[in-house]
Amino acid sequence: MAPRSLIAMKVGLIVPGFSSDAADWGVPVLVDVIRELSQRVELHVFALRYPHRHDQYRLHGAEVHALGGGTLRGFRRAALLAAACAGVIREHRRRPFAALHGLWADEPGFVAVAAGRFLRIPAIVSVMGGELVSMPNIGYGGHLAWSNRVLSAVALHGAACVTAGSTQPAELARCTLRPSRRSRIGRLVWGIDPRLFEIRGKSLDLAGEVRVLHVGSLVPIKDQVTLLRAIARVKESEAGVHLHIVGDGPLRPQLSDQARTLGLTTCVTFHGHVDRRGLAAYYRAAHVLAVTSRYEAQLVVALEAAVCGTPIVGTAVGLVADLAPQAATAVPVGDDGCLAEAIRDAVRADTGPALATAARRIVVSDYLAAHTADGLLSIYRHAATPEMAHGSD
Length: 393
Fold this sequence. Notes:
Blueprint: E1 10-17, H1 28-37, E2 42-50, E3 55-59, E4 62-66, H2 74-94, E5 99-103, H3 107-119, E6 123-127, H4 146-158, E7 161-164, H5 167-176, E8 185-187, E9 210-215, H6 224-235, E10 241-246, H7 252-261, E11 268-272, H8 279-285, E12 288-291, H9 300-307, E13 312-315, H10 318-323, E14 329-331, H11 336-346, H12 352-366, H13 369-383, H14 386-389
Parallel strand pairs: 1-2, 1-5, 2-4, 5-6, 6-7, 7-8, 9-10, 9-12, 10-11, 12-13, 13-14
Antiparallel strand pairs: 3-4
Helix pairs in contact: 1-13, 2-3, 3-4, 6-11, 9-12
């Protein structure tokens, strides 16, 4: 821990889960930002469900309080949230927090707001995923469950400030609040560590004359079926196209069958899980990154690809929508025809480099982990009382 004289304030982050050790990336973007933020504040991370053990340990500059909630549901879920609030309160009494911050607007946001009200300190809530979404046809979204809707409503209405990583989730949050409270919502991108993703460095020798890269879990919300259909269309005019899919998940057998049905067996490679340290070599080797998600709260892979100089095309979700049209090409969700045309356009010499250059300039200027830490520190200082903002003995 940094000496007390260097600590501006003490902040509590409440998260669904956090890395269990240095080799566990957990949610990578949290690791990147927490490493930066812990250099600016005394940081305590309360991990509700993961790791699956009750523990306290130090990692990435933060003190981690793991509650080991795992898959608890029902009344046991309520007990978990109560235990989290109690843990925050105990730590506050040891030395006061200046602010609490719930990352995800359901359980973590609720804990931050509930504990903040009891302690009379500000709570910040960040929309980080699909907690405000309901997509019954694919079983995705926190708003599918009434209990999550209640937790999110309490969190959003009780927060001193609400942030979102892109315009789309910010609008969802805005729709849940009364007009008088909508000014509390702001956009804050959770940035990446540029040391892991650079434009220069090792590049893999990937198959194909036109190399299309997709990075993401093989789950319904990522909609790789639309991507495969788009590649089949691209193949009609670009015989050397090859799709490289990085990531794994339950839909891999189904997607392999789909590729076979579309006649893509020889031009699709499933690379499976790739350690985060190895991703940059894939980005550098690709002509374009393709995104086909039905929804994204932010989209970290777009930041990673941009820093590596890879053009981005995809559905109009998360940061793809925000970067378009100057720094990315966005198409309607589920439209394989438009996506195929966007891929063809992005691999042209006069289009792809321009998109990549614009995206990299934006990300390097504004969307790195250090920028996020600076933004969070400004929010905490603005929300906290003067005494708390300057530390307390």
